[in-house]
Amino acid sequence: MKPSTLDHFLVGLSQQEYDLICNRLEREPNWLELSMFGVMWSEHCSYKNSRRLLKTLPVTGTHILQGPGENAGVVDIGEGLAVVMKVESHNHPSAVEPYQGAATGVGGIIRDIFTMGARPVALLNSLRFGELDNSRTRYLFENVVKGIGDYGNCMGIPTVGGEVYFDGHYRGNPLVNAMCAGVMRHEDIKYARASGSGNPVMLVGAATGRDGMGGAAFASVELTRESQERKSAVQVGDPFMEKLLLEACLELFKTDAVVAIQDLGAAGLTSSCCEMASRGNSGIAIDVLKVPRREENMTAVEVMLSESQERMLVVVGRGREKEVSKIFDKWGLHGTVIGEVTDDCLLTILEGSQVVAKLPARLLADEAPMFTRSSRKPEYIEEKTVFEMVEVAGGDMNSLLARLLQRPSIASKEWVYEQYDYMVRTGTVTGPGSDAAVIGLREAKKAIAFTIDGNSSYCYLDPFKGSAIAVAEAARNLVCSGAKPLAITDGLNFGSPEREEIFWQFEESIAGIAEACRVLETPVISGNVSFYNETEEGAIFPTPIIGMLGLIEDVSKTVRSHFKNEGDVIVLLGENTVELGGSEYLKMMAGDTLGKCPNIDLERERLLHTLCLEAINERLLTSAHDCSEGGLAIALAECCFFEGIGADITLRDTLRADALLFGEAQSRIVVSLDNSKLTRLEELSDNLDFPIEIIGRVGGDSLKIRIGGNEVISSPVREMEKHWREAVKCAVEY
Amino acid sequence: MKTAIIVFPGSNCDLDAFNAILQCGGEAEYVWHMERELEGFDAVILPGGFSYGDYLRCGAIARFSPIMEAVKKFADSGRPVLGICNGFQILTEAGLLPGTLLRNKNLKFICKGTFLKVESTCTPFTSMIEKGRILKIPVAHGDGNYFVDNSTLKDLEENNQIVFRYSSPNGDTSSLFNPNGSISNIAGVSNLRGNVLGMMPHPERVVNVLTGGTDGSFIFRSLFSMLEGVIASEAVNS
Fold first, then answer.
1. Per-residue confidence (pLDDT) for residue A362, from 0 to 100
2. Alpha-carbon torsion B33, B37, B38, B40, what sign?
3. Which domain holds residue A571?
4. Per the CB < 8 Å rule, is A155 touching B142?
């Protein structure tokens, strides 16, 4: 099986990469070996275009137990407890087969969490689609949501939060980023580091088939018309099998029989074997004939590259096989010994007694050549940002507000999250629909909070600021629930890194995330890079997604976003400035993403968080809600929903009315509180020298907003809420 | 006073049922589906989830689990059995409750808070609740559309077997407040004797003010108080 001189192109390697392989091996690789290099050195597995830049992200902190490099990151939350968290994209598969693509995205990220030894307790997701006026988009949207729901629901892990945005730039290339978090005790952490020469290597879970062949390589090129025919590159999910695997693994971890464990994701057996060997500074030898299969006549290449789901590779202590098998048998699973750990640092593949591949594990797993791509600021930026919008003369603000509330990107996502079980495990203190999801912990009176966030319109106009805002806003969401932000996981979705303009977006975005994470002290503990998100119509908006973990020391102090008590004072923390660039309002009026990205002052943002957290910690606030897409008016309207209480607002700013109502100036939070707590809040604000302003009172059944003596908004809450709740359902179903 | 929580492969509300029993002052123990005995238990809960992945049909495979013989005997002896969500589906498949559960009318999974009107207090699970009371208990299912033929429906009504109906917060049981298309807004039914109850909504999810309310505890407290009565009378008789 000698490869021809051109075969490296078939597996996606460049001439330069092929030469390097020959050089390092001091021979030509055979076809199986070449195929393994093809997947391991693909962008998806090797991060060859991003790794240099990713190294500039802050990844350490006193509370970080495990940063990037393992299956997921781990954060200390005190009292011996730790949270494991990661986000991962499944964009390409979802573009081709939305139901299975999204479902297996969820399945993959769940495995990453319990592989670390943690019980998964929360799922979140971040989705991007084209506008809903298109039947293909509606098909993608409906099936992605169903795929996510069916997998998570069956697993019994609550899907507690997420975000969905719609923009034409995602029409042919939707984004599906799934995030999972788990909880464990510090001492229960498991690593994917194979060690102990002679220890058996077991494969557990589903049998291996031809599904998902070369999925990693498929995800490392642009989507084309032909991609739609590549459904064989999409894996098929079986959440029931994964539920059995989850329970079996957690039961197995209670014994000390497990030396190392890793799930089989992209590049299947190839990646799990070589990564586990490389991390453990050892080798692994396996026999492909021992791998249980679900299809006949599979070749060694097919076995090694299959991305069949719901499989785990486990290294167990020698002599413990029976004990381990007993646990798997209980759960109706079959654990098969397929090989053993060696001390030669090689990945050896046998087919019966014949050696069919022999490669240095580290070369395959970690030594793909790194690229430094050249970058160039795209020309569109000047074009789009010089735009200045004339004020809508005498615009009817009530109808503008009503229209904005019905924009699918702003409207309630109830149609989506009602398809997700967000309550199972009964830890959900705050589910979807508030600023952050809050999960109470049975083990302590603490709660953990999660959010996932990203505004790609801002990133399109200014990827540095837009990405910094994504981090700032995620932190702000957590702060509104009373949680102190601790760490992030980042899902970086971009077009082709081989294009200079795209690589520039990527560089700027990383720099923005790094800066915000440093100032807000939220290191990056895990993440995912997804390049090549483009079709013949062009690239997606640069879309960094920030998943963030926060901690509430006393769960009874949790705050939600909506008004609760008639008569409460409404206070704006922060200041109103004119920021219409990149806003949903401007997009609605002009039909395009235009203007300058809103400004962000990270030091001020930090003060805002300190103020809000201190106020919540002293139990001053009844509600807290972040001002984001749609601006102050949308934030106030959202505060009125759920309890159905109105508000009477008077704004003294002298800005143009549309900017004041719908502009998206950063670092603002709307809070409500009892009048008796106001003095203390003002003291806190003075101490921090952070501006606050009393803007109104909770009460009545309408939202009324006056600017300079004129009533510009007067809308019944019930009516607004109906529009806001039903918009997405109407757009999808009618 | 010990409640058995049956665990099938794919059960995922077993933990919640276990915790709810504890939270309401009872004692609970997990029983793996391969067991064949229910000795020493005073009540049985079949929890929600996706037994066998809901493959073939919800509950259709779980009813063949070894433990189900024991559950049948337990039910036949008149002792209390509660099936929640997937547990309800298993009980109908096992023939312990009438009717069947079809796909939701909108063909989607539905997770949300619903209001239930208590229609019968002749079960051990509702004996302490006043008739007509409205309970706020959430649903989370894809196949909760309860169906029986018209003559069975008539029997259920006549025999007081309809235990809960979906309603408005004020007790209006019109189709406007029916989340899944269930016939006659039925959310829970009992067997003729009243000791076996199946319900799609999840009472075990609402036993804590921090996480959604406490209306579910009425059901578990009713059960405990009935069991205490039984234990007390057994003590007197012996």
1. 95
2. negative
3. 390-411+560-734
4. no
Which chain B residues touch A103 with a CB distance below 8 Å? none
For residues A266 and A396, state if they share a domain.
no
Residues A212 and A342 in one domain: yes
Tell which B residues from 166 to 195 touch A, by Cβ distance under 8 Å. Answer: none
* CB < 8 Å & 24+ apart, contacts of A106-109: A106/A147, A106/A148, A106/A151, A106/A152, A106/A155, A106/A178, A106/A180, A106/A237, A107/A151, A107/A237, A107/A239, A107/A242, A107/A309, A107/A310, A108/A178, A108/A263, A108/A265, A108/A309, A109/A178, A109/A179, A109/A180
The stretches of A489-564 forming alpha helices (DSSP H) are 500-520
CATH code of residue A725: 3.90.650.10
Helix (H) or strand (E) holding A613: helix A602-617
- Using CA of residue A290, residue A292, residue A298, residue A303, what is the dihedral sign? negative
Domain assignment present for residue A141? The answer is no
Q: Which of B108, B140, B142 sits opposite A423 (nearest CB)?
A: B140
Catalytic residue among A44, A562, A609, A723: A44
| Secondary-structure percent of chain B, ordered helix, strand, coil, rounded to 5 | 30, 25, 40
Judge whether B164 and B118 are in contact, CB under 8 Å.
yes
Which helix H or strand E contains A530, and what residues bound it?
A: strand A524-530
CA nearest A44: which of A89, A99, A104, A5?
A: A89
Residue A255 belongs to some domain of the structure? yes
Whole-angstrom Cα distance, residue B134 to residue B166?
Answer: 9
pLDDT in tens, A273-323: 999 999 999 999 999 999 999 999 999 999 999 988 899 999 999 999 999
Q: Tell me which chain A residues have a C-beta less than 8 angstroms from the C-beta of B202.
A: 423
The three-state secondary structure class of A501 is helix
To the question of pTM greater than 0.90 for the whole model, the response is: yes
Based on the structure, what is the number of domains in chain A?
A: 2
Residue-by-residue DSSP string for A632-648: HHHHHHHHHTTTT--EE
Residue-range domain boundaries for chain B? 2-237
Q: What residue in A sits closest to B104 (Cα-Cα)?
A: A419
- CATH (one of 3.90.180.10, 3.40.50.1860, 1.10.155.10, 3.40.50.880) for B2-237: 3.40.50.880
Residues A692 and A651 in one domain: yes
| Adjacency order of strands within the sheet including B196-199 | B27-32, B2-7, B43-46, B81-84, B196-199, B186-190, B162-167, B110-118, B134-141
CA A565 to chain centre: 35
Cα–Cα distance, B167 to B182 (Å, whole number):
12
Residues A576 and A707 in one domain: yes
Task: Looking at the structure, tell me whether residues A568 and A714 fall in a common domain.
Answer: yes
Do A314 and A192 contact (CB within 8 A), yes or no?
Answer: no
- Contact of A329 with chain B, judged by CB distance below 8 Å, is answered with no
Q: Same structural domain for residues A361 and A400?
A: no
In this prediction, residue A1 carries a pLDDT of: 47
Q: How many CB atoms lie within 10 A of CB A406?
A: 18
Claim to verify: residue A211 and residue A263 sit in the same structural domain: yes
Interchain CB distance below 8 Å, A420 and B111: yes
d(CA A186, CA B142): 37
In sequence order, the β-bridge partners of residue B135 are B116
Distance from CA of A420 to the nearest CA of B (A): 6
Q: For residue A483, is it within any domain?
A: no
Residue A33 included in any domain: no
Looking at A336, A368, A400, the residue that finishes a domain is: A368
pLDDT tens digit string along A456-488?
999 999 999 999 999 999 999 999 999 999 999
Please tell me the distance from the alpha carbon of residue A257 to that of residue A328, in angstroms, as a whole number. Answer: 13
B119-142, pLDDT tens digit by residue? 999 999 999 999 999 999 999 999
Residues A395 and A362 in one domain: no
Q: What ipTM describes this predicted complex?
A: 0.96
What's CA A508's distance to the chain center, in Å? 19
Amino acid identity, position A188: D
